[in-house]
Amino acid sequence: MRPQDERELAAAIRDAAGPLRVKGGGTRGLVGAGEVLDTTGLCGVRLYEPAALTLVVGAGTPLAEVEALLAGEGQRLGFEPVRWGPLLGASGESTIGGVVAANVSGPRRVRAGAARDALIGVRFVDGRGEVIKSGGRVMKNVTGYDLVKLMAGSRGTLGVLSEVAFKLMPAAASEATLLLEGIGVGDAVAAMAAALGSPYEVSGAGWMPGLGAMLRLEGLAESVAYRVGRLGELMQRFATVRVERAGSVALWRDLGEVVPLQHCAGDVWRFSVKPSEAPGIVARLGVPVALDWGGGLIWAVLPEGTNARAMAAPYSGHATLMLGRGAASEPEAPGVAELGEALRAQFDPRGIFGEGLGA
């Protein structure tokens, strides 16, 4: 089914006789049984006020359309959404609602925060078929939860997003990347920690195999030039190369989309950990990896069926099997699992929503 507006969406959910699988652009696959509920009909801009840095848009709107609209006004989404479709063997175009539902946050997260931090309002339909509104232009939050933050990362388990509202950022006038050539993961994590702890406003810190560590700076051209120079002095024990403008943009697109691992055969794993733990985890895994968020995000490809959690242990954080048989997140602690069940009972008492991954 493919509802064309919120009224049809609510009716479809109320009338559902069995489980539903929520699908946006189809870039992350679908799991579980049930009828597919396609959200791409819930598209279009509801409100855009460039002067107020505010955007309200239908959840089924393609991400590319949102980014093109904002670029035309010299603006952007702060959390730098990325596309994982090629990495996960999926086609299609991400929808903005799917990005929110998965809390997809790219390299700029180290400075600008996650998708949930840019989200200021949502409208969604819960498992009863009731329309819930929170934040943005209208507030109706009878449950007492911070529904805006709750829906970001809920992955279609609490309700189906129909509309999302964001605070925006001006696009950077200039950007440059300081590339620390050829250094290994251990040196890279130390260098990234020093850069992120410096006063030079680093907006990206990652590592890619065959290249080395990458440190991004954005802003006015004069400011970027000055900060890159000072950061280069801080990193003077490494061989450094400055990559400017379009070249820098391409580097960070490749890291966000995990291009170095796209053609590696096996299961795709994503670890969110303490950056200081990254060198040990990478050594224990012993497979191709890419790092983002200063080492706090590790992408790895392992042979099919590998228990990557056991190989990587010990670590603090979460490991998610993104592509492979039985793809799933880290098992929740008992207290967290109990809270999650209580939330699902509140918003989806009939249990019709599975985990929708087709964002």
Distinctive features:
29% helix, Alpha-Beta Plaits, 4-stranded antiparallel beta sheet, alpha+beta, Uridine Diphospho-n-acetylenolpyruvylglucosamine Reductase, domain 3, 16 strands, 6-stranded antiparallel beta sheet, 359 residues, globular, 12 helices
What secondary-structure arrangement, pairings included, does this model have?
Elements: H1 6-15, E1 20-23, E2 35-38, E3 45-49, E4 54-58, H2 63-71, E5 75-77, H3 96-101, H4 109-112, H5 115-118, E6 119-125, E7 131-135, H6 147-151, E8 160-170, E9 174-181, H7 185-196, E10 202-208, E11 212-219, H8 221-234, E12 240-244, H9 245-256, E13 267-273, H10 278-285, E14 289-292, E15 297-302, H11 308-312, E16 317-323, H12 334-347
Parallel strand pairs: 1-2
Antiparallel strand pairs: 3-4, 4-8, 5-8, 6-7, 6-8, 9-11, 9-12, 10-11, 13-15, 13-16, 14-15
Task: Explain the overall architecture.
- By secondary structure, this protein is an alpha+beta fold.
- It folds into three domains: 6-170, Uridine Diphospho-n-acetylenolpyruvylglucosamine Reductase, domain 3 (2-Layer Sandwich), CATH 3.30.465; 174-256, Alpha-Beta Plaits (2-Layer Sandwich); 259-323.
- Helices cover 29% and strands 27% of the residues.
- The chain contains twelve helices and 16 strands.
- The strands form four sheets. Strands 3, 4, 5, 6, 7 and 8 form a six-stranded antiparallel beta sheet that branches.
- The longest helix has 14 residues, at 221-234.
- It is globular.
- The model is unreliable at 138-143 (pLDDT under 50).
